[in-house]
Design a protein that fits this description.
single chain, 447 residues, 6-stranded mixed β-sheet, 13 helices, 34% helix
C-alpha cells in the first residue's frame, strides 16, 4: 500500500511533484480558473482547441515550477457534471495517478472541488467519512497496483513508482471527515490488493495448500476463525463430487472455512462460497493450449472470498459472515475422472460427469451442501464458472443468477455503486429439468 495522508491548506502552495486536479465538461472555474490565470490561459486554450474538454479520463498536464508549490499539474476530466458519481471519481483518480507515475513523479497530491463531485458529494446513510476522499484513494491505490514479486530488479532502469499520496481537504474542519474516508478506503484497498496478489501468483506457487495458508495468515492477523478440512475430513463428509475433481492431481485438496462473528450470536450469517480451482487444465477433456496460462485465475472466486472476509473484519462490520473455499487443482492424471464417470455428492445426489471442464460446479456442489449447516441468511456463490458469460455480457459485467430476487437486486445496486457491474441472467424451471440424467440423478452439463 502506498502511504496516504490528508492535509488542508492553500492548494496552490502545497508542495508535491504533481498536483492532480479534476474538471467536469465546462470551462475552467474556481481554482482551475485561478490556475488558468497563472498559466496565461493555457487551460482555456486547451478547451478551445478541444485538446482537453473535461471528458471522463481525458488529461491535461503542464509544468508549473515556480508558479505554484507543485512542480506540475495534471487535470483529469470527470465527464458531464450530471453523471459524476463515485465511480467516475475513482476512474479519474486512477487515470491521473497512472499518468503521474508514467511521468516519473514520486509524490502526488489530489484535490477535487466538492462542487464538481456531483452525486458523490453527499455522504450516504451508514457511510463513514467523506465519499469523495474514499473514491480518490480507491482509484489511486488500485490504479497504481503492480505485481512485481517475480521480476528481477533492473539496476540500470528501475521502475518509477509513486511512494506518497496526499489528499487535500477543502478546509481544516473537513480534515477529520476526509481522514475517515481515507481510512475506510485503505482497508478496502488492502483487501482488494491481497486478492489480486493471490490471483496473480502462478499455479506452481498458488496451490490449494498455498491458498489455505494464505487464508490462515489473514485470519490470524484479523482475529477471525479459520479451519482447513483435509482430504480425510472431506472423505468422512462424503464430498465425492469435490474429491472427484481433485483425483487427477498430486496436490491434495483443501476446504477452507472462515468465520467472522461481528453480529449478534443469534443472527444468521451471510455465507459466501468461492470457487478455488488453483489451475484448470480441464482434466481429461483438455483445453486448447492457447491462453491456458490464464487458468491460474480459476481460483478467483476463492481469492475474492478470502479478500471479502479480510475487508469485513478490518472494517469491523456488525454482521456474521462465513467464507467457504473448496480448493483443488484440476489435472489429467492417471486417476483423473473421465467423461461418463459418476460421482456422489455429500447430500447423496449422484452426478454424471459428461465434461471434466465443468469442474467448478462439482466442487461448489459439496461446498453449497456444507453451507446449509449454517442456516444462512443469504448464500452468495462467487465463481469463474463459464466463458459463456463473456459471450453474453462481454467483459463489462459479471452474471448474477439466483433464486432470491431481493438479494439479486441488492447485489446489482452494490455493483452500480462500486463500479463492479452485474447483469441478471434467468433461471427458468426448464433449466432444472435439463440437468436430469438418464442414469444417475444429475449431469454436469446440458445441451
Amino acid at each position: 500500500m502506498i502511504k496516504t495522508s490528508v492535509k488542508a491548506g492553500d492548494v496552490l502552495k502545497h508542495k508535491s511533484d504533481c498536483l492532480i486536479l479534476f474538471s467536469p465538461e465546462s470551462k475552467p472555474a474556481g481554482l482551475l480558473k485561478q490556475i488558468d490565470g497563472l498559466l496565461n490561459g493555457a487551460l482555456t486554450a486547451a478547451f478551445q482547441s478541444k485538446r482537453f474538454e473535461g471528458k471522463l479520463n481525458q488529461t491535461f498536464q503542464q509544468s508549473v515550477r515556480g508558479l505554484m508549490g507543485a512542480d506540475s499539474i495534471l487535470v483529469v476530466g470527470l465527464g458531464k457534471s450530471k453523471d459524476v458519481k463515485e465511480e467516475q471519481i475513482r476512474q479519474a483518480s486512477g487515470t491521473g495517478a497512472k499518468a503521474a507515475e508514467k511521468s516519473r513523479h514520486r509524490k502526488i497530491a489530489m484535490f477535487l472541488n466538492e462542487k464538481d463531485a456531483g452525486k458523490s458529494a453527499k455522504s450516504k446513510k451508514k457511510q463513514t467519512g467523506s465519499p469523495i476522499a474514499a473514491a480518490l484513494v480507491e482509484g489511486a491505490q488500485l490504479g497504481l497496483y503492480h505485481f512485481d514479486q517475480y521480476k528481477s530488479p533492473d539496476k540500470d532502469d528501475p521502475p518509477s513508482r509513486i511512494g506518497e499520496i496526499t489528499i487535500l481537504a477543502p478546509s481544516k474542519p473537513k480534515v477529520n471527515d476526509y481522514q475517515k474516508g481515507v481510512d475506510q478506503a485503505e482497508k478496502l484497498c488492502e483487501a482488494v490488493i491481497a486478492t489480486r496478489d493471490l490471483q496473480h501468483h502462478p499455479g506452481n506457487t498458488a496451490t490449494p495448500a498455498f491458498l489455505a495458508k494464505a487464508a490462515q495468515t489473514m485470519a490470524r492477523k484479523h482475529k477471525i476463525t479459520c479451519k482447513i478440512l483435509e482430504k480425510k475430513d472431506m472423505e468422512k463428509l462424503g464430498m465425492g463430487s469435490l474429491l472427484g475433481v481433485a483425483r487427477g492431481s498430486h496436490e491434495p485438496p483443501k476446504f477452507i472455512v472462515m468465520e467472522y462473528k461481528g453480529g449478534k450470536a443469534k443472527d444468521k450469517p451471510v455465507v459466501i462460497v468461492g470457487k478455488g480451482v488453483t489451475f484448470d487444465t480441464v482434466g481429461i477433456s483438455l483445453k486448447p493450449g492457447a491462453s491456458m496460462d490464464e487458468m491460474k485465475f480459476d481460483m478467483s472466486g476463492g481469492a475474492v472470498t478470502i479478500g471479502t472476509l479480510q475487508a469485513v473484519a478490518s472494517l469491523k462490520l456488525k454482521v456474521n459472515v462465513v467464507g467457504l473455499v473448496p480448493t483443488v487443482e484440476n489435472m489429467p492424471g492417471g486417476s483423473a475422472i473421465k467423461p461418463g464417470d459418476i460421482l456422489t455428492a455429500s447430500n447423496g445426489k449422484t452426478i454424471e460427469v459428461l465434461n471434466t471442464d465443468a469442474e467448478g460446479r462439482l466442487i461448489l456442489a459439496d461446498a453449497l451442501v456444507y453451507a446449509q449447516r449454517y442456516q444462512p441468511k443469504v448464500l452468495i456463490d462467487l465463481a469463474t464458472l463459464t466463458g459463456a458469460v463473456i459471450f453474453a455480457l462481454g467483459h463489462q459485467a459479471a452474471a448474477a443468477v439466483g433464486t432470491d430476487q431481493k438479494l439479486i437486486q441488492k447485489l446489482i445496486q452494490c455493483g452500480d455503486t462500486t463500479g463492479e457491474r452485474l447483469w441478471q441472467l434467468p433461471l427458468y424451471e426448464e433449466f432444472d429439468k435439463a440437468t436430469k440424467s438418464a442414469i444417475p440423478d444429475l449431469k454436469n452439463i446440458t445441451s
